[in-house]
Structures are given as structure tokens and as C-alpha cells.
Amino acid sequence: MGISIENKDLVSSPPVECKEPQLGDYLNYRDFLRAFYLYKREMTKGNRRQYNYSFFSAAADIRSPNYLKMIIEGQRNLSEEMAFKFARAMQMNKENTDEFVLMVLYSQETDPVLRNQYLKSLSDFRLQKALRQGVIDRKYLDKVPNWIGWILYSLLDQEGAQFTASALRQLLRNKASETEIQNALNKLIDSGEFVLDAETGEIKKGRKQGDGTDDIPVDLIRRLQTQLMSLGLESLFQDSPMEREFGTLTLSLTKKEFEELRFQLRKFRKQIHKDNSIQRMNEKGERVYQMNLQLYPVTDQSKRIAELENP
Predict the structure, then answer these.
(1) Which end of the chain is more exposed for a tag (fewer CB within 10 A), N or C?
(2) More confident site: 298 or 6
(3) CA-CA distance, 30 to 56, in Å (whole number)?
(4) Long-range own/partner contacts, residues 62-71 (CB < 8 A, 24 or more apart)
């Protein structure tokens, strides 16, 4: 069987600028700085000395009074050292400072592989932060297996797969340690997705993977999808063109066309999953593949931009 997991609504509403901006709502640190500055301006509106760029520079111990403005507009980049100064100027605690620095490193990185690694680090950091703050209940962690768990589940349909940690590490191309693999196996058994025969040691499928995940927090679904898409980026550099299929389309769509295309992609994915499930009932597969279907915006709406510029 292939992996089939519904895409949750991962897009939160844009932060309202009259409210204090939250780091977790942003990926681009320049957008966050802009929102922070506008928030401070609004909060000091009517004061004898309204908040301005010079105030920020003084708090960050920076000589240039317009340094923040240049950063927001993309005229300059932040060094890691300067990122810490900016965090201090915004009176961030250590946890938020670390998150802000990660966001800076991610936003400014141009190498796609390194940028992907920073995104994974930022995603993991935010997940752990949400767990520490009680925003996400730890009981949900075991309900959504990581990328290793998803692959192990499909490996049961692969001919000749041996379910020992050492053998699985080789099959997974050394992308995970034996400890990580064993932990993933244990979670699958504990959740009932794998059934272990105590006498023979044979592992079989139990309940369908993904059952009971409808109430999973968005951050956990986002983590899994990030991990699986990251494997695709690695494959682009690791596997020959004959072993993979990568194609892209850049389209201009109306809202109605987008909704129709998204519906067709979901229908296509479900049909492939269904057909593959039937095929695996008759014979084992030879290798586990990951297929990602992605449709996402790369520009904003022109009409919306015009409305923002001419309220």
C-alpha cells in the first residue's frame, strides 16, 4: 500500500498588524520585522515620541538609524551576530531569539539544499516549542509517525525486506540510525499498525496507517510533509534521472480553476493509492517510492496588492 495522507489546512490567516506579531506566524524574517515595526508604531501613536527606526537602532546598538528599514526592504542582509542584536532590540527571550536566528538563516540562504535543512530545523524547533508550551499535547506525537514510520509501513509490501534495524538501515540508504529505526518500529507495533508474532517474530500489517489522525495538530502534519518533501530534494541530487520523475508546471489560474485542479490532484492520488493497494494483494513490490503532489502559490494576487497599496 502507498502512503495516503490528506493535506490539512496549513495556511493560517495573515497576522493582523495592529496585534503583536508572533514569530510562529512567519517564515520570512523581513516580513516579521516589518510587522513588528508597524505594531510598535501603532502602540506609540499619539505619544510625544512615536517609535521610529532610530529607536530600534539605539536598542540594537547600531549606528545607522535606518538600518532596520534597509533590512526590511531587502537592501541588506543580517549576519548571525547582527541577528542576535536585532533580537535583543525586540526584547526577545532566549527561546524566541534562537527561533528568530533560525528564521534569518533560512530566509537568507540561497543554496536549495542548505535552505531545506534550515527549514527542517526551524520546523522542528517550532514543534518542540509548541510541545514545551503545551500548545500541542505530546500524546499526538505517537499518532503521526515520522518519515521512517511511513516508509517502514510500505516496506512490508516489498519483496525480501528483512525487518531488523541493521537490514532496514541499509534499505533506507543509511538516512537513519539503527536506534531511530528501532524506535519507529516500536511505535508502529505499539500503535497497532504493525502486529508482531511473538513466536515467529514475523511482522504483519495491523490497522491501516493514518487511521485516527483526523484530530492531529497542523504542526505535526506539517512536520511529516516537510520530511517527505525533503526526501524528494535529496533524490534530485542522489538518484539518476532514470530512477526518478521530476516535472514542474508554472500556471496562472483563476480561483475556480485552482479549486478544480486541486480536486483533480486529490482524485488522482486516491486512485493511485487504491490501484496500488489492489496490486500489492497479488504480489510484492520491488522497491518503495515516494510520490509528492504539490500545488502552491508563488505570487500574491495582483488585486490584493493594489488594495494594500491604495486602501
Answers:
(1) C
(2) 298
(3) 15
(4) 68/33, 68/37, 71/30, 71/33
Identity of residue 81: E
Q: What is the CATH number of domain 23-108?
A: 1.10.260
pLDDT in tens, 169-219: 999 999 889 999 999 998 888 888 899 888 888 898 887 765 555 567 777
Say yes or no to pLDDT of 47 above 60. yes
Closest CA to 218 of 11, 23, 4, 3: 11
Among residues 109, 110, 117, 105, the alpha carbon closest in space to that of 234 is found at 117
pLDDT per position as a tens digit, 124-148: 899 889 888 888 887 777 667 788 9
Rg of the chain in Å (alpha carbons):
23
Distance CA 80, CA 33 (A): 15
Burial of 76 (0-12, 13-18, 19+ CB in 10 A): middle
Cell 531587502 found at? 74
pTM of the model: 0.72
**In the CATH scheme, what is the code of domain 141-248?**
1.10.10
